[in-house]
Amino acid sequence: MAQKKMVEAITSMNEDFTKWYTDIVKKAELVDYSSVKGCMVLRPYGYAIWENIQRILDNQFKETGHENVAMPMFIPESLLQKEKDHVEGFAPEVAWVTYGGSEKLQERLCVRPTSETLFCEHYAHVINSYRDLPKLYNQWCSVVRWEKNTRPFLRNTEFWWQEGHTMHETAQEAVEETERMLNIYADFCEKQLAIPVIKGKKTDKEKFAGAEATYSIEAMMHDGKALQSATSHYFGDGFARAFDITFTGRDNKLAYPHQTSWGISTRIIGAIIMTHGDDNGLVLPPAIAPVQVVIIPIAQHKEGVLEKAAELRDQLKKAGFRVKLDDSDNTPGWKFAEYEMKGVPLRLEIGPKDIENGQCVLVRRDNREKAFVSLDQLESELPKQLQAVHNGLYQRALNNRTEKTYTAQTFEELKQIADEKNGFIEAMWCGDVACEEKLKEEAGVTSRNMPFEQREISDKCVCCGKPAKKMVIWGKAY
Amino acid sequence: MAQKKMVEAITSMNEDFTKWYTDIVKKAELVDYSSVKGCMVLRPYGYAIWENIQRILDNQFKETGHENVAMPMFIPESLLQKEKDHVEGFAPEVAWVTYGGSEKLQERLCVRPTSETLFCEHYAHVINSYRDLPKLYNQWCSVVRWEKNTRPFLRNTEFWWQEGHTMHETAQEAVEETERMLNIYADFCEKQLAIPVIKGKKTDKEKFAGAEATYSIEAMMHDGKALQSATSHYFGDGFARAFDITFTGRDNKLAYPHQTSWGISTRIIGAIIMTHGDDNGLVLPPAIAPVQVVIIPIAQHKEGVLEKAAELRDQLKKAGFRVKLDDSDNTPGWKFAEYEMKGVPLRLEIGPKDIENGQCVLVRRDNREKAFVSLDQLESELPKQLQAVHNGLYQRALNNRTEKTYTAQTFEELKQIADEKNGFIEAMWCGDVACEEKLKEEAGVTSRNMPFEQREISDKCVCCGKPAKKMVIWGKAY
After folding, report:
1. Do A34 and B102 count as a contact with CB atoms less than 8 A apart?
2. CATH label of the domain that carries residue A272
3. Helical H runs in B64-147?
4. Do B41 and A158 touch (CB under 8 A)?
5. What is the pLDDT of residue B9?
6. What pLDDT, on the 0 to 100 scale, is given for residue A5?
7. Which of B389, B423, B452 represents a domain boundary (last residue)?
8. What's this model's pTM, rounded to 2 decimal places?
9. A95 to chain B: closest CA residue
10. Residues linked to residue A460 through DSSP beta bridges, in sequence order
């Protein structure tokens, strides 16, 4: 029988990291391009990853008291303009609807780039008393930002995300919510995606349009560049004032509620690819892998092999694993390559000899370690092996970050590091935006965030030498 | 303590069915209006109903081999125009994006009113051989149709739905898929939503733009009007030809695949309201009710009542029921009215006397029947009571449909029925679109569908008297 196709090799990541990335996105069948620039099709395998991410996070949001809603996708221009900083930040990059059928609209509508304004319009209708607070809402949807340079997952005209939008009686409660959600994202990245992240506050220059403070988690990709993996914003009562949202407080006086928003997007799939992938393709953390274990029969024409393989599949499915049996007529070698490309965490091989011995072979995707496992113990062994893959991925990513994290005391030192390599550069900052801009223009790095865990590398700003206020992570970013 | 608000009475359904409907939508907190006409906000309670619908159907789609994907929301005008009938049907009612940021687009993009064209563009990329078939895809998203007259759930500019899009090697397989999905929808409506439906084929006049055949399920609302609850379309290879989608067949020759699409939308929530609701508010079928059992403590200030109520809540939650305890300081009477408005299927009352007797009171939402249930047997009694509510709702809806289904032999007879009342009118049809148009213009009824279960009421067309081909259900529709 002919193979259905050859598994072609992909570009090596050391040769051309960008090409390696797009090769994986395509060959692992995550995405297809549509005829609208920057709009992607999430194919079944890519979408299944997103569904797993959604399922885990949605549970965590609900456990922390959040409710899902759905907002319209259109924002009238006048509504977008209500908060000054917000409209300045987003208006240049929105898609405008100007016609409905053959009729020109009286007011043009933008397709939501984010939904603060829509939530605020609704909150003004439903918040009257302190008894109506907090409102803890979330929605899963896609949003649109008109980008010039696009890359699948990393920068798209349309992308999928969740956006949480909450309103609170006091500033303190809102700040706590902002931190709570940042922690949920950080835990999710580390414990489910095996991606170590740095939690911190964004500088004013890099914060969200309209926010008082933006917090982020920053991950390092294999090539040393940073990827902002999720953000959480504290708005104070700025939007509430702009949208005239008031409530009667416990003291019977009118007050403005305090607001947050927070989001994670399909961008995180780009982070998974660039954190864990290798020259054989995608490597998926077990928690979100659409297939956790692929069963590949060896010498499948021999009596009993396919039957045993199918029996194992049914047994493991029933035990709650996401498992797939490939009983196609492709060779085992072809199948090995195919599921390595697709990043399946564990491969289970079973042939006539194994059946005789009551065992199977498990091969880890992260390091190709082989283990012979007794079929009796398979169900209890699998969670351990999946955990081992997770731990292996996390450790490798952490090592990569440790290796590529530098410190700089002076501008020259920082510039030299930035010129020669990608990585996180820890350096002190005076808090002046002029220094931030100089580092961007002359050293090509931006501030990633000001980590919650501060170290005092020096007492002087790396740029101007004036007294330092904060340690900042600087780097090149996706 | 003051009540948080009075539960206001709603308009009686017999007095003004339309007003009754919008009262429920608002007072049960399903929907809020946004400032874009016809675009609604799905509030937490409304969205939770949709999430339950999604969960059940998504499982059924996956069990029948379908995979979820996500397509872009934009369709370039040239892509929409590829299939002639399709563009004629949809172009008049789409929203057009003409600007990205401050730049005018070279080609305008419509916001998807449905995604056949997008799926076809993708299928052309990924279908090469019979080995790539079938493709069984689905997506959950919102779509936009520029409607003049809008009503929450029933007719919206933007609404949420799922759209399945499949491609098959043979026409027969595609037809079977069309029927399979129609059956899934019908079963879902009857077994989960307690809404009896009539399965049938649409006339050519009423079929989907670009389809060879459209099948529908039609439900009757409390007022006797019809609501098309889901549709399933067979396209033949028309789109495949227009989009140049070919595959190498088993005979090594190029062929066009055969296509289907099928969908159900948030409209079905309108059907739930208008099938089951009453003058006290919403009545929800247990399978999709966000809260299946609401626990209302009686004399909750007395020692042990709130503790026992909380204990029951935890116990029932753990047993898998969707349960809510209202321990607010509103009176029991207020709470009864509130959760009747919200359509919660079962109310569980527990007070000091009940605790003493080791029992509680269960009250059904559909008929207010009361039962005293021993706390020991609560867990096993609840599923029976929920099933009883379901059965009660189904039977009442079926009775309503039976009462309001008429037959007509002549045009005069049909017109008289249509003038005097709403309902389904079974009458024979010759198959001529001229008769269909006359019935619409002069009797104000449209063809709902041609039921699979045909009866021969007469051998003559109700309109022109020529030989009849099919029995058609005629009626006024939402």
Report:
1. no
2. 3.30.930.10
3. 77-80, 84-90, 116-126
4. no
5. 82
6. 53
7. B389
8. 0.96
9. B100
10. A467
